[in-house]
């Protein structure tokens, strides 16, 4: 049975209600803060419970549906509540799974995550305390007990975190600083051309007159004169 189904059966156990009355009670008691039951999904859950024979309704002269819990619904509700109260369950399995695998993280990551949870938990406790103080005068005894139980559980975890974090830091080995090998850039080889006046390999050259300079055979091009065409006679006009 889902939390939404259990909540609606419990409200109808108190008294028969129209659907809009159920929605108003859910809003007034702040039930949506811990139970996923929206305004539209509430009608879907009511129809589902009615198909299962756990609730029934009667339509009035205006077509509004007055819901009430059936005998079968009372039996299912009592069994579910007795099981929830009588069976101890894990408070937060996700957190415990993370604790069991701390070795997958580095020391700074673990410390950051633990401090973040501690800060978030403190903020949640403050908000819940303010909400409980505001709504306590109108809350039924059982609903007030739910608020107090949740606050005690959260405060107990916060106290445990405040002891666990320094104890974990004391036993966690310091991670060695990464060693960085010095890097020496290779010296670039300097090439000095023979034309460089500072080069020790400079070759003395002598000037050659233009008329004595020769062109390599591969670069020689023989220039031949174009054939001349005979002059054409000019005709008289």
From TrEMBL:
Q: Which InterPro entries match?
A: Tscrpt_reg_PadR_N, WH-like_DNA-bd_sf, WH_DNA-bd_sf
What are the transmembrane regions? none
Q: Where is the Transcription regulator PadR N-terminal domain?
A: 8-78
Entries under SUPFAM superfamilies matching the protein: Winged helix' DNA-binding domain
User: What are the start and end residues of every segment in region (Disordered)?
Assistant: 194-237
Q: Where is the signal peptide?
A: none
This chain's protein is named: Transcription regulator PadR N-terminal domain-containing protein
Species name for this entry? Candidatus Thermofonsia Clade 1 bacterium
């Amino acid at each position: 049975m889902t939390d939404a189904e259990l909540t609606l059966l419990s409200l109808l156990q108190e008294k028969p209600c129209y659907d809009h009355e159920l929605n108003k009670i859910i809003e007034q008691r702040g039930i949506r803060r811990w139970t996923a039951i929206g305004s539209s999904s509430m009608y879907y859950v009511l129809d589902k419970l009615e198909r299962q024979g756990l609730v029934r309704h009667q339509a009035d002269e205006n077509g509004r549906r007055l819901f009430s819990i059936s005998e079968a619904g009372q039996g299912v509700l009592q069994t579910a509540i007795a099981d929830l109260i009588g069976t101890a369950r894990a408070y937060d399995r996700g957190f415990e799974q993370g604790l069991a695998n701390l070795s997958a993280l580095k020391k700074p990551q673990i410390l950051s995550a633990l401090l973040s949870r501690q800060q978030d938990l403190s903020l949640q406790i403050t908000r819940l305390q303010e909400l409980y103080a505001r709504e306590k005068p109108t809350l039924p005894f059982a609903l007030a007990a739910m608020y107090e139980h949740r606050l005690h559980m959260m405060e107990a975890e916060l106290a445990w975190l405040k002891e666990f974090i320094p104890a974990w830091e004391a036993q966690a080995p310091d991670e060695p600083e990464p060693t960085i090998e010095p890097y020496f850039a290779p010296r670039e080889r300097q090439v000095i051309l023979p034309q460089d006046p500072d080069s020790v390999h400079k070759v003395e050259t002598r000037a050659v007159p233009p008329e004595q300079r020769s062109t390599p055979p591969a670069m020689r091009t023989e220039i031949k004169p174009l054939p001349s065409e005979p002059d054409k006679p000019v005709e008289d006009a």
